[in-house]
Recover the amino acids of this structure.
């Protein structure tokens, strides 16, 4: 994701970058190292993620240029930005799609870019969505425990216990939306035009298959 973002933003002048669903800040820290003039903001609905991100922030020379906040993106207003990045988040934001897309467009300056990694419409993702709905219908402490144990085996080395426990709930959430021509048309109608697409390697069998799409906001 870092390399894709860097291919689409200027490196030699001040810019503002927003990471929607920043998690523990790993992408934002990498971007800060590569963009010495950038002001970067990371938001996430998870207070645990933001605590972890701010805990790492003080040890970095770029800390003065990075801000973190625990908030829902739909309630957040600090634009405009030159770039918005969102890695595996947009498909989980509840509610209607058009208000979300319009907000993304409104939060970008003309010529700004949205770099969006999310699941795309395919047979695997449709089947996985059914599995998540079935899991939700049979959810119990025992099922939570099985998912947590699987998470420890798959991600225990790179993620703490608090983060793993918080992510158990994600396995019960089917995607609200997936990237397809209909969603791309929603973006286009809001002034966000598709410029590039990148295939993304799946990092876990529990993860939906993703693709990163770069949109550019047209002139006002």
């Amino acid at each position: 994701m870092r390399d894709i973002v860097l291919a689409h933003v200027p490196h030699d002048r001040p810019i503002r970058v927003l990471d929607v669903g920043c998690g523990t800040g790993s992408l934002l820290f990498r971007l800060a190292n590569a963009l010495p003039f950038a002001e970067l903001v990371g938001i996430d609905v998870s207070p645990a993620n933001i605590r972890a991100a701010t805990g790492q922030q003080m040890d970095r020379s770029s800390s003065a240029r990075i801000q973190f906040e625990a908030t829902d993106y739909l309630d957040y207003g600090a634009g405009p930005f030159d770039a918005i990045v969102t890695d595996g988040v947009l498909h989980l934001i509840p509610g209607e799609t058009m208000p979300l897309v319009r907000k993304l467009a409104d939060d970008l300056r003309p010529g700004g870019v949205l770099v969006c990694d999310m699941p795309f419409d395919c047979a695997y993702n449709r089947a996985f969505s059914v599995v998540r709905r079935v899991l939700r219908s049979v959810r119990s402490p025992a099922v939570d425990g099985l998912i947590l144990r699987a998470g420890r085996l798959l991600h225990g080395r790179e993620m703490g216990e608090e983060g793993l426990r918080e992510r158990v709930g994600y396995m019960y959430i089917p995607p609200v939306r997936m990237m397809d021509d209909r969603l791309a048309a929603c973006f286009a109608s809001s002034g966000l035009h598709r410029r590039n697409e990148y295939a993304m390697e799946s990092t876990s069998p529990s993860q939906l298959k993703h693709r990163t799409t770069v949109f550019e906001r047209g002139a006002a």
Q: What stands out?
A: Strands lie at 15-20, 38-44, 66-70, 81-87, 108-119, 192-199, 210-217.
